[in-house]
Amino acid sequence: MRKLYIFDTTLRDGEQSLGITLNVQEKIEIARQLVKLGVDVIEAGFPASSPGDLASVRTLARELQGVIVCGLSRAVEGDIDSCAEALREAEYPRIHTGIAVSPVHMAQKLKLSPDQVVETAVAAVKHAKKYVGDVEFYAEDAFRSDLPFLARVLEQVIEAGATVVNIPDTVGYATPWEYGEMVTYVREHVPNIDRAVLSIHCHNDLGMATANSLAGIMAGAGQVEGTINGIGERAGNTSLEEVIMAIYTQRSRYGIETGVHTREISATSRLVSRITGVPVPAHKAIVGSNAFMHASGIHQDGVLKERTTYEIINPEVVGVPKNRIVLSARSGRHAFKYRLAELGYQVEAERLETLYQSFLQLADQKGEIFDQDLHALVGGNIVEDNEISIQQISVTTAGAARATATVTLELDGEAVTDAACGNGPVDAVFRAVDRLVGEPVTLEDYTLQSVSRDKKALGEATVKVRASDGGLIVGRGISTDIIEASARAYVNALVKVKKIANQSYGQVSAVISDEVPVINRQ
Ligand SMILES: CC(=O)SCCNC(=O)CCNC(=O)[C@H](O)C(C)(C)COP(=O)(O)OP(=O)(O)OC[C@H]1O[C@@H](n2cnc3c(N)ncnc32)[C@H](O)[C@@H]1OP(=O)(O)O
Ligand SMILES: CC(C)C(=O)C(=O)O
């Protein structure tokens, strides 16, 4: 197996993301997690940029063990001196210095000729070598450079002592096959390339940083640079977790390994997101919250039968305890039954079908269905009573107290409508239902509570009504609309009152079973 070195620049290039400035405590917290993750190099900052960053790099250099700590600098003596000062106490210090090599950067930005650039590059490496043995040279904007010139620069800096040479796609302009070709070119045209590790560093301006990095690795690069969650200048950098897991999942085919403890990936991603304040998109590969969730019936069925049908990574490998089956209107019977069984409900086929149809109706209204919703569904509080069902409710209010409700019910197979005024919308609805059902009851109690999470949480209404024979009957109703939940609860209670009235006392418990927890008969 070929070893691939992982160079993490979350604290340097990642920190160049708009809006991120990390203080020393924040950098140290992330760096400690990166050590746990098992990266080989931590680029801690750009010491010449500010006294604060110099102090941060110095602290990390002092505190971190078992990892190379690196500081970035221009090919400028003062920058290199700052790096050396910051890294003085590092167990394994590395100075990363360099200069741009593309025509536009040399002519327009640096205002140097190619020969002057070579001279500056060599002088910078020699200066850094006075302080540390491990010097990485970056040929900025290498991808847009003239390749024979790039080869010349690299040969000279290796001759000057560079131990690592980095050929970045600074502006994220490459495509994978072109980037791979550049790596191949360098390996074939820099005569002393075997004396240095060849490093790659890709930006994501065209969304190809990971693909380009993999192409570079396949073409023989020995070190890959990137950041956790892909944060970085402009559109960001290569997401290290993506490269690491691409290598991991294909390790037998690629013959490449890293020293990364993949189970730390998820924790590292969450920490970086929390500290930098940059959220991880839900659909982000490897570390997005949806990465191991299955939302549609066909996939859920497949995963339940055999995980690998729709999962290329075992979530535990990246530190996610388990995948998740998310129930929605796109779920099928297999997933529905599976979740019910997990909640302890063993439901026979016929009832399962009825519940599943109710579940679909609810899911169409609600989107995601949570466990609390399922409990309510199985408890019978969502399933519409088939003797009286609510077809339509419309309520108008005028001021806080006055409301008018028009309710249409299906009563014994026939649609009937009536309207009533009341003291608020719920009272108006109950009065309209009373007029339609014609069952004389007195409302004793009414409560409303939320039974699940999120903005579309279900409201559960509970009513207690006193029947004309003195019995106290409980009705429950659930809906995402609290007026509808209240109407369902009231109708549910009235249906029970009617049933009780039509049956002998001996049959009551059989008819209403455990759906009616309170029946007081005096
Ligand atoms: C591809 C990358 O370099 S990614 C790293 C980016 N990181 C940073 O920029 C770190 C934060 N930057 C800073 O704190 C400041 O820009 C500093 C301290 C580096 C320099 O600040 P200043 O001296 O005020 O210069 P400023 O940033 O305005 O301009 C950059 C100068 O460095 C030159 N320069 C840029 N890169 C290099 C290089 N690699 N080697 C030598 N000179 C360089 C530019 O040509 C320009 O020179 P000029 O002043 O002669 O025109
Ligand atoms: C400093 C170098 C490595 C860089 O960040 C780039 O070229 O993108």
Automatic annotation (TrEMBL):
GO terms for molecular function: 2-isopropylmalate synthase activity; acetyl-CoA C-acetyltransferase activity; manganese ion binding. Pathway: Amino-acid biosynthesis; L-leucine biosynthesis; L-leucine from 3-methyl-2-oxobutanoate: step 1/4. One of its GO terms (cellular component) is cytoplasm. SUPFAM superfamilies: 2-isopropylmalate synthase LeuA, allosteric (dimerisation) domain (SSF110921), Aldolase (SSF51569). The keyword Acyltransferase applies. Keywords: Acyltransferase, Amino-acid biosynthesis, Branched-chain amino acid biosynthesis, Cytoplasm, Leucine biosynthesis, Manganese, Metal-binding, Transferase. One of its GO terms (biological process) is L-leucine biosynthetic process. The keyword Metal-binding applies. Mn(2+) binds at D13, H201, H203, N237. It comes from the Bacteria. Residues 389-522 are annotated as: Regulatory domain. NCBIfam families: leuA_bact, PRK00915.1-3. PANTHER family: 2-ISOPROPYLMALATE SYNTHASE 1, CHLOROPLASTIC-RELATED, HOMOCITRATE SYNTHASE-RELATED. This is 2-isopropylmalate synthase. The lineage of its organism: Bacteria, Bacillati, Bacillota, Clostridia, Eubacteriales. The gene is leuA_2.
